[in-house]
Amino acid sequence: MSHFWINDKQVFFEDEGYGTPIVLLNGIMMSTRSWAPFVESFKANNRLIRVDFFDQGQSTKLIGQNYTHQIQVDLLKSLFDHLKLEKASIVGISYGGEIAIQFALQHKNLVDRLVLFNTAAYTNPWLKDIGRAWIAAGKTRNGEAYYNTAIPVIYSPKFYEEQQVWMKNRKQVLVPVFSNPEFLDQMERLTLSSESYDVKDIIHEIEAETLIVSAEEDYLTPVDNQAYVAKRIPKSHWVKIPGAGHASMYEKPLLFTTLCLGFINAKDTHYHI
């Protein structure tokens, strides 16, 4: 466990393993701890770097501040500088994927391969209003109300029904977290930071080989969102996972790990006759 400072703000990160570096970027409700089920696989043959964005996990909370995604992009650049990373592959899901896209646009020379799960090129009215519903639920300070507003839609209906024991255990863990006013204020700031996100006109400038992964039952960032991204990134490769929702890495963990590590570590990229 490590941290560094950006002026008066602390950034928490984990740096484990050896080999080709992979930076994992959190979804909006996640932290470095959220990736625990995947750590052993990812660090077996790679250097795995996880980081908490501001207002996540153990990084500084930006109480009373308004900000955009740019502050998180700059945090990521500072992490690269701190670790003296000349180049790394980046895996991002949802919010983390959006930060990854902007980082790949602003720091092309630092990105090897890019993996984007459930990621969009802009915050459309659908997603903006979903975020506003999260904020309204958070203002009630009722953890169960926030859970019921934010969590069911993250999963595919089939997974939610068939994994009721797992879901009930998750609810027991999450409702106390969602009852914490500090956490709910963090989530409000993170959600609002996404409202201005829009790279539609420049996303074609990404130079990295990019794997785009959709989940066919994603009701937050539907498949059309990834179709837009895939058509505009020149070196894009698009995969759709059937029977999974927005939290596809939890529903299909083996597939998540296989897609990430296979794409990042593959040496043969062209077929020569």
TrEMBL record:
GO terms for molecular function: hydrolase activity. It comes from the Bacteria. InterPro entries: AB_hydrolase_1, AB_hydrolase_fold, AB_hydrolase_sf. Residues 21-253 form the AB hydrolase-1 domain. Transmembrane segments: none annotated. Keywords: Hydrolase. Pfam families: Abhydrolase_1. PANTHER family: MONOACYLGLYCEROL LIPASE. Belongs to the lipase/esterase LIP3/BchO family. This is Alpha/beta hydrolase. It comes from Paracholeplasma vituli.
